[in-house]
Amino acid sequence: MARKTISIVTPCYNEEGNVEELYRRTRAVMEEFPQYDYEHIFIDNCSSDRTVAILRSIASHDRNVKVIVNARNFGHIRSPMHAVFESCGDAIITIVADLQDPPEMMADMIREWENGYSMVLAIKRSSEENPLMFYIRKRYYRMISQLSSVKTFENFTGYGLYGRRVIEIVRSYRDPYPYFRGMIAEIGLPHKLLYYDQGARSRGITKNNFYTLYDLGMLGVVSHSKVPLRLMVFAGFTGAALSFLAGFGYFVYKLLFWSRFSVGIAPLVIGIFFLTSIQLVFMGILGEYVGAIYTQVHQRPLVTELERINFEYGPTESAREAPLQERPDVAGGPGARSQEIVHGVPGLRQG
Predict the structure, then answer these.
(1) Where are the alpha helices (DSSP H) in 62-163?
(2) Tell me: the pLDDT tens digits for 295-309?
(3) CA gyration radius for the chain?
(4) Out of 8-17, 175-184, 249-258, which region has the weakest mean confidence (pLDDT)?
(5) Tell me, which fold does domain 5-130+152-209+301-346 have in CATH?
(6) What is the structure's pLDDT at 350?
(7) How many angstroms separate the Cα of 255 from the Cα of each of 61, 245, 260, 313?
(8) In the chain, which ranges are E strands?
(9) For residues 101 and 95, is the Cβ–Cβ distance under 8 A?
(10) Domain ranges in the chain?
(11) What's the pTM?
(12) Predicted confidence band at 251 (pLDDT cuts at 50, 70, 90)?
């Protein structure tokens, strides 16, 4: 029988302090499974620090390490999915480069995959991050679960193992801006949940900001729920009914106390501002759905590659059987076996 392959995919951006340790710890895990070939794909989102140089050096000594360098920063959603689709493993493990998720869990994931599970998902039981942020994330996941028409996984960040069939189903969606966590829940194949305590980031700073968190949050809502749209309709009916009742009440009161009743302009101004703010919120929600449709219609590629390294080598050796290659070439040297890619066309170098 042909040997099976396991692909590990790591998206990174300005993670010069973490990628080398992640590589070593991942390789140590794969040495426990000599029966499998493996590849470790790093996709760099146009880092401005030494991340790419370090990855070049690692790849020059280990052919199982493959590197994709993006032409620009394509965001934290599109870039990882591109690397997943470029992997060739029978099982694909995704893990980010910040080392908050323990690479040693991959051993348990592989064992569960051997037991027949198509998906093995790592679920955060607790986290050493800011308690307020952890609480907000936890409430967000619960809200998504309540709004969605399918059962989603709370405190699941994407770290997990996915069989080849799962990845091919995700690919068939042809989504140019995929909400991977929601897709996994929607696929619904047999899965195993592994719980862990997330550590704090020890090196570097988080790349998440308000915009990226808001983008991910709204993507989760609009991708898997029609509830906000229907709430707009219900709120409209409710507002119309309350306005009618209030107007009728004022009319009756005026008839009963014609000479003494004077409302003034204050309730009118307050009502106008209130209704206008509600309309703006609803327009924003509607705009999110329109924007999602706009993105789908364009069908842009996930990323444009600037360069890829070591993809000419297949994952033919396990970590235990493949000692580090003592290759004289270093980062940027002629032996680095890299290919520049412009607009997705291999071998086309920039002028």
Answers:
(1) 75-86, 105-114, 131-147
(2) 677 777 888 899 999
(3) 26
(4) 249-258
(5) Spore Coat Polysaccharide Biosynthesis Protein SpsA; Chain A (3.90.550)
(6) 34
(7) 90, 15, 10, 88
(8) 5-12, 37-44, 65-70, 91-94, 119-127, 156-163, 191-198, 305-309, 338-342, 345-346
(9) yes
(10) 5-130+152-209+301-346, 227-298
(11) 0.72
(12) confident
Which residue is listed with tokens 């051993």?
107
What residues contact 206, with CB distance under 8 A and at least 6 apart? 98
Quick one: how many helices (H) and strands (E) in the chain?
Answer: 10, 10
Please enumerate in sequence order all residues whose Cβ is within 8 A of that of 194, keeping only pairs 6 or more positions apart, or say none. Answer: 105, 108, 109, 112, 120, 121, 122, 123
Mention every residue, 6+ apart, whose C-beta is less than 8 A from residue 187: 119, 166, 169, 170
Sequence letter at residue 71:
A
Question: Cα separation of 228 and 219, whole Å?
Answer: 13
- Indicate whether 275 pLDDT > 70: yes
Q: Which of 33, 10, 89 is nearest to 319 (CA)?
A: 33
Longest dimension (CA), the chain: 99
